[in-house]
Amino acid sequence: xxxxxxxxxxxxxxxxxxxxxxxxxxxxxxxxxxxxxxxxxxxxxxxxxxxxxxxxxxxxxxxxxxxxxxxxxxxxxxxxxxxxxxxxxxxxxxxxxxxxxxxxxxxxxxxxxxxxxxxxxxxxxxxxxxxxxxxxxxxxxxxxxxxxxxxxxxxxxxxxxxxxxxxxxxxxxxxxxxxxxxxxxxxxxxxxxxxxxxxxxxxxxxxxxxxxxxxxxxxxxxxxxxxxxxxxxxxxxxxxxxxxxxxxxxxxxxxxxxxxxxxxxxxxxxxxxxxxxxxxxxxxxxxxxxxxxxxxxxxxxxxxxxxxxxxxxxxxxxxxxxxxxxxxxxxxxxxxxxxxxxxxxxxxxxxxxxxxxxxxxxxxxxxxxxxxxxxxxxxxxxxxxxxxxxxxxxxxxxxxxxxxxxxxxxxxxxxxxxxxxxxxxxxxxxxxxxxxxxxxxxxxxxxxxxxxxxxxxxxxxxxxxxxxxxxxxxxxxxxxxxxxxxxxxxxxxxxxxxxxxxxxxxxxxxxxxxxxxxxxxxxxxxxxxxxxxxxxxxxxxxxxxxxxxxxxxxxxxxxxxxxx
Length: 564
Ligand code: GLC
Hints:
Blueprint: H1 42-55, H2 67-70, H3 86-89, H4 96-107, E1 109-112, E2 115-119, E3 122-124, E4 131-133, E5 136-137, H5 138-150, H6 155-168, E6 173-174, E7 177-178, E8 187-193, E9 198-204, H7 216-233, H8 237-240, H9 242-256, H10 286-302, H11 310-332, E10 333-335, H12 336-343, H13 367-372, E11 378-385, E12 388-394, H14 395-403, H15 409-421, H16 423-426, E13 435-436, H17 441-448, H18 469-479, H19 482-495, E14 505-506, E15 512-513, H20 522-536
Antiparallel strand pairs: 1-2, 3-4, 5-8, 6-7, 8-9, 10-11, 11-12, 12-13, 14-15
The structure holds alpha-D-glucopyranose.
The site of alpha-D-glucopyranose (GLC) has 7 residues, from helix 5.
């Protein structure tokens, strides 16, 4: 969440609570049971099979032949230099950047009462003085957490999961309005009081963020990370604690609450996710829908059926998953054929027989889309609501849709085809465009409210965000398209460290360091490390990927090969 400025998060008084009041630290004394068998699980084996079949004809040059020999019991072992040991298991020479990136990542670590708790958003020492952006953002911490898990350092992730759970328990208010119980913070800060010798936490649930938007994505990331921790360590005891089970239930209750909805997608405010400023991502943005879907699936894996209150919620999750996957795969999916169908839509249809269910008016299809849409490839559009289809392409939502198997295998392949076909537009000189294309002129005025930070091809408006490379790489591994990941990582490697790990790049091709980009942005560093570690040891993918659930197969499947 966009905070008040570097280092300026002044917590609201209500948020200042000494966490002694909620002491869960006893849980930290349980060392995780490292389950060496974990990578022999069905999930991972089927993942291996998936690779092998997906690699056919993709020119991966026998890379996957060595998949089994790359398998490393116990996961990434910590090396003495702080770089992942996995790099030594392969013929790869570890890239010189990797060691520097680990050093930088460790510099961003923040401790709470003597234990590392998270990574702050940026440690910028380029100007001589250290300019910290010292909030720990929940969404920013995810790639850091994955890097630590992959490197065999799960304790920090466990600490983070537990402390954020405590924050969820706080009373959250904006003026006289009380926020939902399940809400997780966008960010928190460790306040050090050297005189009293105590550390306290100050959290922001949206009440101090610019625009006062609650981060709908935080709770979803928290559940996804809890599953990643469980999967990677084999330690089920954390997720099974009554506290974690309750935390999951609260998040689920909040997003499964009944209202006036006619769609299974989750209605939300503009700027409630990674794009945390007004950018026309209100309604049913793909980023939130994909994360919602993934966290529903993760919650189902983590909730204990026998625990009180869980059965009912698990049934609601299953029902929602069915409806959500059908809705997304049917109405959000766009490829050449479907674009042609929309182009010829009749409007003003009433009753159950309507084809154009949302009354999308063909004249609202933007001109750029006709050229952008390749004959091979497709993607989930940005948003679908009554008479409004946001045709923009968003990176995070599409990659998460692949990882969560919200995309069918055909759709996942088509998303990768699109990236390949539209390389210049979506990757350019720095992976990866947060969205495509930029909005400008009158539309920019209307949609962003004349936001000077989000001018065309900058920041959230068509800027390029290096952090997204971990999601792209994960999606590439899942679909067996390693060449795409390698090409993208090569581009990033050529510039990232030289440019001091900026937060984002500007321009149509992403050639320029972003206008207001902070340097030494932690998630740019962590995103790179995670991408590298996953490429070197693809079994890491298991912690962030879910296999296709055949029971959720849609009646209607469209893909590049779909024929009307
Ligand atoms: C910006 C980004 C947001 C991120 C935050 C901290 O506000 O839009 O996604 O969490 O910075 O890096």
